[in-house]
Amino acid sequence: MKVDVRGLLACALAFTLAACGGGGSGGGGGSGSGTSNPDGAWLTFDPAAPTVSQYEGESMPVSVTATSSRTFAQSFNIGIIDTKGVVTTDVSVSGASAMSYVATLRTAPNLSAGTHTTSLEVRVCEDAPLTCAKPFPGSPWHVPLTVQVKSRTDAAARLTLSVPSLSVTTYPGEATTVTFEAQLDKELARRVASIGVFDPASLTVTPPDQMTLAPDGHYVFTLSTATSNALAVGTYNSNLQLRMCDDDVRTCQRPVAGSPWTLPLTVNVKSPTNLSALAPVNGLGSWTTYQGNAAHTGFVDASLDPATFTRRWQLSSAVNSESRYASTAIDNGRVFIVRQGVNTQWELLAISEDSGTIAWNVELTNLNHVNPPAAANGRVYVTSTGHEDTYLWVYSQATGALLKQTAMSSQWSNYSAPTVVGTDVYSIDGYYGGLAKYADQEGKFAWTVPSTVEEGWSPATDGRFVYTYSTPDNILKVFDAADGGSAYAIGAPYPYSTYFTAAPVVLTGTGQAIVASGQLMAFDLATHTRAWVLDGYTFGMAAYGNGTVYAFGANGRTLEAHAPANGNLLWTVDLGNNDFSNVIVTRNLAFVSSSTATQAVDLNTRKVVWTYPQGGNLAISQRGVLYILTSAGKLAAVNLR
Question: pTM score, two decimals?
């Protein structure tokens, strides 16, 4: 029989939903597809007995397709009767084909946990469906509906937060970041529409754009502490709400079951300065060069209590500074740094440990690049590299007076700080980054040898030999400290000309040289062999102390402890989502830093016990002050006693 499209359109337009009765669970009946109702066999339903699953507090759609096998001349209305309150009065109808349409209802959001059943009575009438004095042949039909409702506890368990609570330290007028992660199960990841964080206390600033769908259900949230309200010194608390909604998370009129998930947040706003009296700490010495000493171990022989740490002072960053290998040197109560100032001019600064004030500064004008300083013997040693402005500069620590300027032949590359042993200074010199020994007492270079190291290096020495390591040729080169002669090399030469970079060599004091350059490896200095190489990528630098090698794994997201004898992994600590690359070690703590944060890891409990909202190169002075220097020249001083 030919389809009467007008009749179907009239049906859709005149559709009326009737909902009667109360809620509750119970059985239902009816013919479903109409097979037990011969007069109504012309109208069938798919599914014949729908089942839907939901959680307490949410409403789910239920779609049923009705298909007709005949047409009628008169228009008609449809009503759906639910006497148990399992569905709401919210309904929509759309045409699926010329002879069928889809009715979408919604389950009631107030259903308790458990199984709820009802029989949807479908009426097709010439008049109003509630009275239906003129029913169509076979009307009414009965469609069984089952709703499985899971508990709110089950709903909340679909999302796991990476931490039970958050705590962050900041200072008046300054902002810092706080990060946490959330993992959704597969079911929730498939259905979430929007996800975001709401802070009822406005202690944090949420991004204006909410998070979009992550197919794997893994989300990382990074919030910034608020500075616009200028929080005074004190402790503030909030309960962050991680919201998942079927609408905008800022209003969240339709939350997903289980939402919101609550994450307690504490913001500690501390005093920006604490200029307590300083005194030398037993076991600590001057921090003369990169990683503290000529062996580049990054180790200080002292135990520290994180509960006593306070910020001493902070020096703001320079205007245009950006130094790739920025590091500090600390001697005689002063901190020495190199940075770019206004109009990209370089400057050497001496900063008082006691007050954070600049004792003196020297403008190093018209230089292409100035590398980080070393400090010893009452002097500051700095190298500059460019084309015709490559020099070793020697300054007085006390006054900043220039004591010596000696020309070198190295060009363009950027390096780490020189290395000082006694009155000898080991540095770069030579067109391809040669190695040179500067005899400070004589005021001249004692020798210079090529070493084909182009970027980022600082030689290590035990006083007898000088050690360099270059990549990608993977050769540890060892030179005689007395005359610069080649003592030996470990590794095979790289056969092609390439642009070489360097990794710092860490000397263990037990006859080993440790290198972190993609892979963590050790060289046996007695047998002149590569002792071991670890599979897996190692990120950033390495440190040695307490008879242990410390290095970063997982692209800087874990701190690993290794046995120096064989490289065996002793333990690992998850550092979170930041990419950490700097590490120095004390007897009981490892200080690690990324570009945005510094943390202290307890070596016994292997937990993060302290966090500071600034990252960068790390150093510890003889008087127990931790320094954190960013590549932009921002310097933070933290009292460790």
Answer: 0.77
Closest-CA residue to 126 (of 65, 74, 62): 74
Q: Over the stretch 258-296, which tens digit does the pLDDT of each residue have? A: 999 999 999 999 999 999 999 999 989 999 999 999 999
Please report, for residues 321, 470, 477, the alpha-carbon distance to residue 455 in angstroms, rounded to integers and kept in the order given: 19, 9, 16
Residue 343 pLDDT > 70, yes or no? Answer: no
Contacts of 567 (CB under 8 A, 6+ apart): 520, 521, 522, 531, 532, 533, 534, 549
pLDDT tens digit string along 246-260? 888 888 888 888 999
Encoding tokens for residue 640? Answer: 């460790």
Bridge partners, residue 360, by sequence: 350
Q: Which amino acid, one-letter code, is at 433?
A: G
> DSSP secondary structure string, 29-47?
---TTTTT-GGGTTEEEES
Supply φ then ψ for residue 168, to 5 degrees. Answer: -140, 145
Asked if 80 and 18 touch (Cβ cutoff 8 Å), the reply is: yes
Please state, in angstroms and rounded to a whole number, the distance separating the CA atoms of residues 131 and 507: 93
The angle subtended at Cα 324 by Cα 320 and Cα 326, nearest 5°, is: 85
In this structure, how many other beta carbons lie within 10 angstroms of the beta carbon of residue 609? 15
pLDDT digits (tens, 9 = 90+) for 397-449: 999 999 999 988 776 677 889 999 999 999 877 666 678 999 999 999 999 98
Among candidates 174, 234, 227, which has minimal Cα distance to 203?
227
